[in-house]
Amino acid sequence: MADVIVCIPTFRRPNGLERLLSALANLKTETRVSVLVADNDAEGQEGLDVCLKVLARGYRWPLEAFVAPERGIAQARNALAEHALRKRWDFMAMLDDDEWPAANWLDAFLRAQAETKAHALHGAVLRVHETAPGLLASYCDGITDWRGRSGPIPLVESTSNALIARAALEAMPRPWFDLAFGLTGGEDLDFFTRMKAQGARFAWADGAVAYAFVPRSRLSLKWALARAYSNGNSDMRVFLKHRPSAPAVAKEMAKIAGVLLLLPPALVIFGIVPNRAADALRRLFRAAGKIAAMTGRRYDEYAIVHGA
Asked: Rounded to an integer, what distance in angstroms lies between the CA atom of residue 181 and that of residue 300?
């Protein structure tokens, strides 16, 4: 039987963290589970308070919480990895504090891992909206569900609902997550890109479902396009960090040029079809974010907290 440690970075979302801990306590599994929480708010420490309250009531799993004082999502993930490697476990599961798992989540992950022998896997993320999103926004990343075909994939790109084998983490040099991406995001894409370079295999586990709460402040087209810009910006920074070959750079430039040239007319042509208009806008803003990264600019998406 596998040992799994669930690692959770949290920052000023006490309600979300408590919901997540409650869902973990209700997992349907015979697996040995432990939970590790890093509170990245050294001043308020609301996450730490939630964990102490949960422990005082009695909790199903061993639960440890600590303060990771250096601000940033990469910093919090590094602190989790450092603490986790002092313990016994075979797999590390990662969830964010605005997510919570389905009851069969963990067993579905472990079955997929046994079938694929992947070193890292990603599961489905189903969005739960606080209010109905706008028409165009409802088709954008971060607001739509995130699903895929179960089985091997080229790369896991996010730690939002991920499972990682201990051996793969131990093979990675410290720091596991690049501090330069602490407030921008992209630290997870960079992490898995480096893991792939060391020969890791990846898989998608669509049966390993986590739900993600999307607050009202994230349900507008304005936020969705800012998210697309942010993703493009961080993706390009990761791309450039790994010193791509000249042909790879040329290919990326051609993709950006194609978006800039072809999508504005597409907005007019497909303007009456909401999903195509939303996709065109998303691609334009991703391209803008990539261009900004090429000129040395970055977008600190995680400087703002959404939800509670």
From this structure: 9
State how far the Cα of 216 lies from the Cα of 307, in Å rounded to an integer. 8
Kind plus residue range of the DSSP H or E element containing 297: none
Find, among 37, 58, 61, the residue nearest to 49 by Cα: 37
What is the rounded distance in angstroms from the CA atom of residue 308 to the CA atom of residue 129?
Answer: 14
Q: Which amino acid is at 218?
A: R
Token pair for 37:
């929480």
CA–CA dist 237, 251 (Å, integer) = 16
Q: Where are the domains of the chain?
A: 3-218, 221-303
Q: Decide: helix, strand or coil at residue 100.
A: strand
Whole-Å CA distances, 117 to 7, 110, 236: 21, 10, 30
Cβ within 8 Å of residue 80, ≥6 positions away:
7, 8, 9, 36, 38, 68
What contacts 185, CB < 8 A, 6 or more positions away? Answer: 73, 230, 231, 234, 301, 302
Residues 210-222 have pLDDT tens digits of 999 999 999 999 9
Side chain identity at residue 300, one-letter code: D
For every residue of 57-71, DSSP letters joined together read H--SS-EEEEE--S-
Report DSSP state, residue 216: G
Confidence of residue 278 (pLDDT cuts 50, 70, 90): confident
Nearest alpha-carbon partner for 99 in 4, 3, 209: 209
Could you tell me which CATH class the domain 3-218 is placed in? alpha beta
CB contact set of 79 (below 8 Å; sequence gap of 6+): 38, 66, 68, 70
Both tokens assigned to 180: 């330069």
Q: Taking the model in full, what pTM does it have? A: 0.91
**Residue 264 one-letter amino acid:** P
The pLDDT, as a whole number, for residue 270 is 65
201/248 Cα distance (integer angstroms): 22
| 94 token code pair | 């990662």
What are the tokens at 60? Answer: 């199903």
Asked if 52 contacts 79 with a C-beta cutoff of 8 angstroms, the reply is no
